[in-house]
């Protein structure tokens, strides 16, 4: 996390352990030939769990997203309304926040694009939630061959 001239840049951190845990839940259900709980969100192969740790929680105003993609592709960022938990395996679909942030890079392009209105609303919602949370979890879905290693992402706030 970088702080410079009244700005707070909060990075997305890939949570390998939690991603593995949620994948094990999916495998366990398959092996036992069981169905998920009603409304349970199971992690798809292209989805990964990330978290954001807030070192400062109050008086944050969303400024912008800082996403860098090493190659063309798309990433969908969905926040969870669930409070800190060491285990999101029973994450329910109703615990996913709207809107989602969609970021993409076209072939040959230098910059990452997004739907500005949704990204702005999503960022403002995160700033509000930061007041009551030190940690927030996100599901990132990668498409078009993009993978977690090819992403650097942060949220920038005025602090």
UniProtKB/TrEMBL annotation:
UniProt cross-references to InterPro entries, sorted A to Z: Olfactory_marker, Olfactory_marker_sf
Position of the signal peptide: none
GO biological process, one term: sensory perception of smell
Pfam families (UniProt xref): Olfactory_mark
Cellular component, GO annotation: axon; cytosol; neuronal cell body; nucleus
Protein's name according to its UniProt entry: OMP protein
Gene source species: Baryphthengus martii
């Amino acid at each position: 996390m970088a702080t410079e001239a009244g700005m707070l840049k909060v990075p997305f951190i890939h949570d390998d352990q939690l991603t593995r845990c949620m994948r094990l839940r999916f495998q366990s259900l398959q092996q036992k030939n069981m169905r998920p709980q009603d409304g349970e969100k199971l992690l798809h192969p292209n989805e990964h769990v990330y978290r954001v740790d807030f070192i400062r929680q109050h008086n944050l105003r969303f400024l912008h997203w800082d996403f860098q993609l090493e190659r063309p592709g798309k990433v969908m960022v969905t926040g969870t309304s669930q409070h800190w938990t060491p285990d999101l395996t029973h994450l329910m679909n109703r615990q996913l926040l709207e809107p989602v942030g969609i970021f993409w890079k076209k072939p040959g392009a230098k910059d990452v694009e997004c739907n500005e209105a949704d990204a702005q609303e999503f960022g403002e919602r995160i700033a509000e939630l930061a007041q009551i949370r030190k940690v927030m979890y996100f599901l990132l879905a990668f498409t078009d061959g993009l993978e977690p290693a090819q992403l650097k992402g942060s949220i920038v706030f005025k602090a």
